[in-house]
Amino acid sequence: MILSTELRGKHMGFAWGQGNIFVYETLFKATGSGSPFIHEVRKDEDIYSPILRKLFNESHHIFVGLQTIREDLPSKNKKPQFVSISKNYRSVIRACMEELQQVAVSTKNAEMSVQYGNQVSILLAIELIWNLCEVLFIDAAPAGSLLLHLLDWVRLHKADVDEKARDVLQSDSPAEHRDYWDVVVSYVLQGRLDEARQMLGKKATLTPAANNIFKMMDNLLSKMPFYNPGGTQTLTEFDVKWRHWHEEVDRCLQDNSFASNQHLEVLCKILLGDEDTLLEHKDLLGTWYHFLVSRLLFCHPTVKPTELHYYAQSCMTMFLDSRSAPEPLDSILLAAFEFDIHQVIKDCSIALNNWWFVAHLTDLLDHCKLLQSHNLHFGSNLREFLLLEYASGLFTHHSLWQLAVDYFDHCLEFGRVYLELQIERVPLDTERKALKVLRICEQRQMSEQVRSICKIMAMRALRNNRLGSALSWSIRAKDAAFATLISERFLQDYCAKGTFSDLDLIDNLGPAMLLSDRLTFLGKYREFHKLYGEKRFKEAAKLLLSLMTAKIAPRSFWMTLLTDALPLLEQKEVIFSADQTYELMFCLEELTSSLNTPSSDSDKSMQEEDVELTKVELLRLALSRNLAMAIVKEGTVET
Amino acid sequence: MENINAKYVSQKISKTRWCPVSYSSLQQPEVFATGSWDNEDNKVSIWSIGNHNNSGLEDGFEGDPQILCEHKHGGDVLDLQFLDQERMVSASSTGAVTIFRYHPNTHTISVLQHWARAHSYPCDNAPCTALVCSSPEIVTVGEDGRIVVFRADQEGAVRVIGEMRTRMLPPHKESSLKLSVVFVRECRQQHNSRGDLPKDHGGFDGDRAPLHCVDRHPNQQHIVATGGQDGMLCVWDVRQGGTPISLMEAHSAEMWEVRFHPTNPDHLFTCSEDGSLLHWETASHSEMPSFLQGGRNSSVISHGALTPAGGNRPLSSAWLCGDSGKGCLETTHMLPSQTMSVNSLDIIGQCLVCGTDGEAIFVNRHVPV
């Protein structure tokens, strides 16, 4: 984290950032030298891990798919869908875990290796919990299949049995291997009886003298009934059959049939579900939940979901009596066995540093309609609260913020508000990113944000003297005031340089021209130039006049307009009609009378005043000449 | 859609490009490059989908892209093009243009040339938004409105065509400058000594929406397809200019890239912000009825704006067929639904690669062309 040695003994100040804290040295007294560094303390390092990023992206894809499942199907039909979605999530977790494992093994940096190792174990725990939740809550298996699912669950999370078995089998003489009996017992504890029988067969061939007891054991193992959910056998029939088998095993034990072979006797006791024997193999079981499942397998295979928590509690106590307090994982699992979903979620939120797991799990459970609306004190429900927290965390990431948008979309109550606040704070480095952010805002009709983003981009463009770009941004935002400002700049530029920049944009404004008066004027003025360039003088003249008479043109620009009219007046052909000339003269008079007021421009230099006067005189001359010619022309009768 | 897999790569992909293969060998491309964006550390990476030495891969993972090498890149990768089989050029959001060399033997990338401020404002960085290569020359375009020509082996810029006062396009249309760049390239052969831009390269009019992408028909140079902010695909005939030959509502959001298939130009591909990648096909030559073609087909609403000037439509320019109501155009979605924005695509032969904002790369090796 921070270099705490340097900062010890110094005063620290801090400021909150988005998802992080900036910490800096400060001085309460004005003496002494400070340090120019600012340290950033990040709350959540996980989102910056490149491998975990894949988890976030893939799970986002699954999340969006889940939200769009049609609501009109009855819940019964949706269960397989939810189970498959849950499996998808889990497979994503596993894929990430495997990759992390590979990197942890291959990296040379010891510290990173430890860190990866930690992440792997956290993911393992997460997947364990998720799997259990899937079995108990989503799949909601009834008695009978429940145990089978739990067996699968345990088998999935106890992989070292297979490794050991592989070692044993690959050795020269498997039956003599020191782990041989461990493997056999582990198989039996997990209910993998076929594999146990195969292993036993190897020992049996080695000791032909004890052949019959091995055969007996093999017989017992083969006859153990397993419930078949898809079959025709009902639960009661299975129960009866199982009791018969149980009694047979008991008889074998009472007869001391296996007295000659201590290992086989142990196996027999395990098959009977003897707790003490099971507890003797704590190291093979590893965890209390394995103990629980094994015990259920051999004592009570028709366990009902509601009875689970009795067994769970007692098993945990029996298994963990050496340690004082259970670990967080244990209490989470226990809460799951008690079907206390809220407790599970609460404990997970506390134990983990990232909201990813609880947010997605809660969302899935909510879709399965398993969460009662548990209203928190500020009104939103649990699912929404968790999703909002998770998404807000994502938003602080420079790249993953795009994922967060979808999460906010599916939080009905507060999602939009959160999004509005967060989206404005995304740094806009390039136009392309700004376009993407804008698209997000426009799709959700967030006009405020659209306007503010466009204004930021427009100001940036303006600062770099890119007037056309600034104008297009303000048109996109429909920001009339800003468009006016930019049009003024354009016109000022024109007055200064005599040409326009960004002609293509102005030419193609289309209906956007009506956004602001000044912009309309700019467009129309440019049209005038175009008409003039195409030598369509009459139309140009009409346009020019209308610009002044309709008061579209700002007063300050009238001089320029009149000066533009000069060449039209000077043409051989009469362009302005008499009426039009009168109007022009009127405009000129209006202009000069306002210019002659003493308040205006008293500090103008003599030269400029001269120029102004000359211009006005030229105009007057041209206007009168034109008037004369126009009157003559209009008065002439064509013969 | 069965042949497409997502590979999550922990970086948002802004550009994907196949490494060019020599046409004579008729090989399918195996190596592609990607550029990332919006990361704290952006990277240019090279991937391979060739047959690896691991045998026994399941069919589903055959062709899963494996990363060969990567190199740091300052700023977002805004454009990426291959100069030749070993060198590629990238345009950066910091205004820099860099030539990278990929060494296939050692699987490393090294920087050959780096022009740090190819495009800039007086007080800021101007992103370089697009570039076009025609070895050994590279023409780049930036948000500062200038076109700069580089040569791969020279230090400084060869020519700067900047601040075109009379033909200044608004910066949204920066990438449409690619079009003019294409023409510049052609005209340079004629005006070698002068640096003039041809004054009339088809003034395009009536585009209210900014363009984002442009591509030219590989055989018939006058046919151009463009896509823009409103997601409309327009096909233009440059000889006639003015208005597009056909306008099609392709996507519901900005279209980021449009590409003609290089060897089979009856096929066109577009990708967009709305997360879809469409494969357009003019069915002028194929007799196969549409229900036998896989994937989701959707008929296209086309507003034919102009019929070609001549009475006889040349057989091969099916794109200029203004009225597609006769069903001469088919579209297919190539990606599973609900992906995030597809930023880039590239196609050679039957292999299509595309990259998305969901930090995933999709490769399809069996595109029906």
From TrEMBL, chain A:
GO terms for molecular function: structural constituent of nuclear pore. It comes from Oryzias sinensis. Component of the nuclear pore complex (NPC). It comes from the Eukaryota. This is Nuclear pore complex protein Nup85. Belongs to the nucleoporin Nup85 family. The lineage of its organism: Eukaryota, Metazoa, Chordata, Craniata, Vertebrata. InterPro entries: Nucleoporin_Nup85. GO terms for biological process: mRNA export from nucleus; positive regulation of DNA-templated transcription; protein import into nucleus.
TrEMBL record, chain B:
GO terms for cellular component: nuclear pore outer ring. WD repeats lie at residues 204-246, 248-290. It is found in: Nucleus. Its main location: nucleus. The keyword Nucleus applies. Keywords: Nucleus, Repeat, WD repeat. It comes from the Eukaryota. PROSITE patterns: WD_REPEATS_1 (PS00678), WD_REPEATS_2 (PS50082). The keyword 4Fe-4S does not apply. This is Nucleoporin 43.
